[in-house]
UniProtKB/TrEMBL annotation:
Protein name stated in the entry: Nucleoside phosphorylase domain-containing protein
Signal peptide: none
Organism of provenance: Achlya hypogyna
Gene Ontology cellular component terms for the protein in this record: cytosol
Record-linked Gene3D superfamilies: Nucleoside phosphorylase domain
Binding site for phosphate: R89, R133, M134, G135, T136
Matches recorded under SUPFAM superfamilies: Purine and uridine phosphorylases
Family: Belongs to the PNP/UDP phosphorylase family.
Domain Nucleoside phosphorylase: residue ranges: 52-297
Length: 304
């Protein structure tokens, strides 16, 4: 089937049902768009050049304050989100040209955020914002504390495709990321003196069994089975394992959105499953992707 033509008013939307005249409820963000508030949406979000997301709400709040300081913006613009039931799904901040949100854990939660933020930015008229996921991961053949800049997201077959069931049929989407942005971010790591690599990222829908851990409530394979799989993943170019990069890459690639995934490793899975480093060391690791993106965004905004 030939791809749909994009509506002339949108650059990163592949849906003829989304038009400037149609109201759009961004339910999980607690926001909405209509002809009556289009100017307000544009005034708030139209200048966004970077969308940075990560799993933890607290981590993204911390990043919002740090980017405000880095860009010398006195007060972050915090956006209060409507809760779903007894909890809020996402928190979102806007700091100058940077939109920041948490995506929760796993690809389904991340997918909802990406759909709604992408529509928000299109409604606002934001042009070619760079999407970046940052977070933590398990290393494969690299030491804890290594910043891995993903080249692509892999599935359980170690293929760079993301499968999504649509109306009873499974569709495959290419899950690759922008190589030029990856090189720029790697250069920033180099300038900061941080251990880093560009490599493939295995993305899983489960933290325990699908990642081959031996410490879940269910484990029906041996340590030898696990090591054989992890070695095969390493040989295929995998350098870390997490739970979002594949879908993130497939979504952004499908819509021609420039994107990157930057995650620090907390351990080398070839050496074991349990994180044994002291909390202070893990905290220092957690700061590394943040430090890299602060420098990267500062440099890019200076060029604008």
């Amino acid at each position: 089937m030939a791809p749909l033509e994009l509506p002339s008013a949108h650059h990163h939307i592949c849906n003829d049902n989304i038009t400037p005249d149609a109201p759009d409820v961004l339910y999980h963000l607690g926001l909405s768009y209509s002809k009556s508030n289009c100017c307000e949406v544009a005034s708030i979000f139209g200048d966004v050049k970077f969308f940075v997301c990560g799993g933890s709400a607290e981590r993204m709040k911390n990043f919002a304050h740090k980017i405000a300081e880095k860009l010398q913006i006195e007060t972050p613009f915090g956006y209060a989100l409507a809760p779903i039931g007894s909890t809020s799904r996402y928190v979102i901040y806007k700091v100058g040209p940077v939109l920041i949100a948490n995506h929760g854990m796993g690809m389904p939660s991340t997918s909802i955020l990406l759909h709604e933020v992408t529509k928000l930015l299109e409604h606002a008229g934001a042009q070619n914002a760079v999407y970046i996921r940052m977070g933590t991961s398990g290393g494969v053949g690299v030491a804890g504390g290594t910043v891995v800049v993903s080249s692509e997201g892999l599935n359980h077959e170690l293929r760079a495709v993301h499968q999504i069931p649509i109306l009873g049929k499974v569709h495959e989407r290419v899950a690759t990321l922008d190589p030029a942005i990856a090189l720029e971010i790697a250069a920033t790591c180099e300038a900061l003196g941080l251990p880093h690599t560009i490599g493939k990222t295995l993305s899983c829908d489960d933290f325990y069994e699908e990642q081959g851990r031996l410490d879940g409530a269910i484990c029906e394979y041996t340590n030898e089975d696990k090591m054989a799989f992890l070695q095969a993943a390493y040989d295929a170019g995998t350098r870390n394992i997490e739970m979002e990069a594949r879908m993130f890459a497939a979504f952004t690639h499908k819509l021609n959105i420039p994107a990157a995934v930057v995650c620090v490793t907390l351990l080398n899975r070839l050496d074991g499953d349990q994180i044994t480093q002291p909390h202070s060391v893990l905290e220092s690791y957690d700061e590394r992707p943040m430090a890299v993106l602060l420098e990267y965004i500062k440099a890019k905004t200076t060029e604008m």
